[in-house]
Structure formats: structure tokens, C-alpha cells
């Protein structure tokens, strides 16, 4: 049917290079295999990924799944042309999201979409996924990589991660365990994690016209590096507490800050009261608030304010839990308590800054 | 810290409206609940989704997972401002991908990212997810919705889907089952499914300057409607064959066409030989080939050419399998056979057109 004289067009002419994608997929496979234990029955390349779970020792295994993205932190990665850290961010965010249900991770899949899949982008992201998966003991079993000129501008890309873990039904962490009088313990974050980047970039880069390489006063690092700090994973610090009856619930402080995330694990009739003076808000958050300016209430419903994970623990056992966390290298902070209320966060005290 | 005179800026000023997102999430929850059976332990809103699998009757349950997107078919949805069909596409694509491993689906999660999350976009997509999940008996257990001005243009969006299913280890469909002499049975597609849209749109809309509402000659429908036809799900047609020893393997014909997808289920030493004259290529594909022009080899490595699923079956039992498929309302076509070779697709015959 091809008419002589017309130059036939190919899928590559339309902007999609299947060969580049195939090469990248082989690189993925090698990195991913490093994360595979005996439970993984195939590598990448089949239509689906096979994982034979070992549920011995679990009375009633429950699968816990979650999906997430990295948000506009990707724009910081693009500015700095550094892609491994956001790969790790994605894995760690997903692990934390099922960890707060009491689950340990089993396997992870990634979705990468871009206007143009460069080797630098692919290698950076996949290195980040593989390294974080290896660190957390998660099998990187599969993924989808889509080059979509027309939907993404050449330099744009997006990521989504998908995780599945398991928890024994009796050990699911849930709001029903939370009681008035429980204490809130906060674990430090490593930076903005993966939330609030639209606002942070608007302030630093659009309003203040800073460059990513400009120093962030009082930090010894640049704005770009500070913004790109990898989202902490709390699995190793918390694994030993997952079946501990002293631990009633946990909230991962992501988009929406304390204000929206802590209520997700509160039952009817209880509030969380957070003392803003209990910890020192890191300079990165203070600079955002000062330069915006951004009111404290807005900060608390946007950023993690230096506390990336909140544990709700039995008050009588809180000191013992704190000791265990310190033994894990954490610096847990008593940031508040549970009181009668209506599933909201109430703030008291003045932030230290 | 807020200085008098400066107008404090909020996350909403930066383009992210958490309230709109919260409202949409409540709508999601209602739609998703309709897909929940007793295995789903929570609704949407927790950090992770809880699914208690019922593996009774399975000797050695293996979890099969996959992730996928809809690709630049999203641009057609955007042109037509119709979003439910691409939602269904995503679910059906994912179900098909694990179906070809022999798995039945358990649960699905979605990722939606957009420059601006309008109620029309959210409602359309979620209706599509929920309807397709309900049709296929999959629990829609969770998702992530990200509004990312700066990363996506206001009217742009992207989707990723994640699925988990289960297969008994003894019934995993894999290349090792395939033998020389096996027959290839093709099941009809409903259109382009979710692949080749960059090239198709380039030809129809950029080169030929057609409008989505322009009629596609010989179809009784418009180009836009033809391109937006929902990706077929083959679960109901094939469920009865999943444990049938006559069925050796299956290939879902997605990006890369026959040329790249059939070899994914071939063992070393075997080729698939496809007779291009065995079926009539639907007019939509013929129009793309003619107008491009696009050579047949390029068509076969880009589009499904009217065959969305290829079954590799025992030749001695192929007639019986065909009969079972006909009883399910299918019109299976013998499109070729397995021969000695090196894990490639070889084509013979001339396409009928």
C-alpha cells in the first residue's frame, strides 16, 4: 500500500524510539535483578511480574498496597539534572505509606513517563529505584516506561510507584487502637520529603529569583541540594516496633502536613494536640515561611516541618518506646498527645525559630 | 514571622487546591466502594489499602503484578474532552497483562497526575476505573491524585494503573510450555487499544489536518470515536481456559505489535510464523497505513492490526479451544503456528485489504 515517492513514516519519526527503550529495559533488568530474592520467579520482560509470597508465620496475611508520585520535586531534579535521588524518594515514600499500616514491603513497580527518555534520565531513576529497593529489602519486580512526545514536553517527566507489602491481620495499625492520653512521638525528616515543592519553588525560584546553586543561609548547602534531599525511609527504625502493643498508630506526614495526615489515623471523638514549641523547625522550613511569607497554619498543612513520621503510643510505655528508637539512632521528640475532640489536629505553643 | 504588609501566600496560590482534591477523593471513595467485596478491609483514605486474599483452593499462590499507562491515547481523550473511556482502557490493559500469565485479577490502584484537576476530568476517569473494575471483578482499592502545575500544562494529564492478581504456580502460562507445531489463535481487538497513538494522531491530525469529528470512511463513525474505542478486556472470554492444558501461552498485543510481543512468550529455538492473509485488517489500521504511508512491517511492530490477543495452543486441541471461544462469543482466527527458529516473529502472506 506504500506509494512510491512518499517517504514512509515510522514510529520513530513520530518521536518514539522503541530501540532506545529496549536498551534501557535491559539496563533495568540488570539493576532490578540485584533486588530479587527467591520469592521473585521472573525478571523483567514478561507481561506481569511473578512473586511467590512466603506467608509462613502469619496467621492471617493481609496485603497492603499503595501508590504515589514524587510531585513537583521532579522539577528540582530537572533543574539540577540529577535523577537518582527522586527515584529513591519514590520507593521510600511508598515504603513509609504501608509501614504506617504495620506492613513490611514485598515488591515495588515503577511507572516512568517522559517527553524524551534520555539515557541519563533512565539510568538515574533506575539506579535510585534499585538502590532504595535494595536498602529496604524490597523486590523491584517490574515497571512501565513510556516515551510520550506530545503529552510531555521533551524535558518533562513524571513517576509513579506502586508497592505491595504484608501484615498479619492482628497487627494492623489502625485508628481503633488510639486512646485519649496517648503520646505523639515525632521522628525527624530529612527535608521537605516529597511535599510542598510547588510552593517552595515558587518562593525560592520564581519570587526570589534564586538559582539552585545559591547557598541556603545557615545550612552549609545550596537551595537545590537542600530541596533534593532524599525522602527518609523509616522502615529500619520502626521494624522492631511493628508488633509492639505500645504502638497504636502511625501517620506519614506527606501532602497536607500534620493537619491532614494525623487525622487519617484518629478515631471518632479524639483530637491530636501538637505543641509547636516541642522541636526546632529546620532552617529550610523557616526560610520558606519567612520569605513567602507563609503563615504557620499554612505551613503546617503543607509541609512536614521537620517531623516526617508521627507515632501514637501508649503513654505508659512511651518512655520505653523512645528508648528503643534512640537505640536505633533516632532522636524521637514528644510533640503532643491525644485528647477528646473531633478528629482534628489542634496546635498549641509557638514554633521555635 | 509574617510581616505586616506582605500578603501571605498559600499552597492554593501556588496552584494546588487541596480542598478540590479532598472533594474529589470523597467521590472516588463512593465509586470505589462499589467494587469492594469482603476481601477489601478498608476504603480509600488510609495510607495503604488492605486486601485479605482468599487463597483457598490454590496449592501455591503466586502474586502477579503489572503497571501500565494509556500513552498518547490520552491526547485523543483530551481533544474530545471525554475521560471515562481511557479510565476503562487502563484497567482493561492491566487485567490483560496479568491474564496472559494465567492470573485472575485481585485489586487495582490508579495514579492520576494533571496540571489542573477539573471535576470533569476526575469524574470521567474515576467512573471509567470503577466501571471497568466492576465489570472485571477487580477491587479498586486505592490511588493517588496529584495536581502539578509547572510539571503539567493546565490541560495535560497522565495516568498509571497498577494491578495485582493471583495464579496457582502449576498454572502459570510461560514460554516453556510452547512447542513446535503449536497453533496461534488470534482474538479480535476493538481498535488501536492503547498503542500507536503518537503515529496515528500524527497522520490523521497533524499531516492530514483532520478533525476528530470528521468521518472515518467505511466505518460509520468519526476518527475521534474510532481512536477512542475502549481497549478490550479478554478476561471473561479466557477465564475458562486458564487451567486448560491445551493453552500453552498468550501474548497481549500492546506497544511493539506482534513483532515485539509474541516473542515475549517464545522459548529459545522457536519462532512464531504469522500469516498476514489469515484475517482482514480493520479499516482504521488500513487508513493509517494508506495515509502515512506506513509499511506493513512498521505497522506490525506498532499496532495490533485487529488482533489484540494471541493464544498459543496445542495443535491437536486447537479446534476444541476454538469451539470454546466461539461459545464465549469470540471469533477466533488461526493466524499462524510455531516453528523452529530463534524467538522471532516471521511473517508470510499478503495482508488482505
Give structural notes.
Two copies of one chain form a homodimer. The first copy, chain A, is built from eleven helices and 13 strands. Chain A is α+β, with helices and mostly antiparallel strands. In chain A, the strands form three sheets. In chain A, strands 9-11-6-12-10-13 form a six-stranded mixed beta sheet. In chain A, helix 1 runs parallel beside helix 4 and helix 3 runs parallel beside helix 4. The interface between A and B is large, with 92 and 91 residues.
Defining traits:
disordered N terminus; 353 residues; alpha+beta; 11 helices; 13 strands; homodimer; 24% strand; four-stranded mixed sheet; Phosphoribosyl-aminoimidazole Synthetase, Chain A, domain 2
- Strand segment count of chain A: 13
Tally of separate helices of chain A: 11
Measured by residues with Cβ under 8 Å of the partner chain's Cβ, the largest interface is: A-B, 92 and 91 residues
Helix-strand pattern of chain A: HEEHHEHEEEHEEHHEHEHHEHEE
Report the CATH superfamily of the largest domain in chain A.
Answer: PurM-like C-terminal domain
Instruction: Determine the structural class of chain A based on helices, strands and strand pairing.
Output: alpha+beta
Which residue ranges of chain A are poorly predicted, with pLDDT under 50 across at least 5 consecutive positions? Answer: 1-6
What's the gist of this structure?
The structure is a homodimer of 353-residue chains. With 353 residues, chain A is α+β, with helices and mostly antiparallel strands. Chain A is 31% helix and 24% strand.
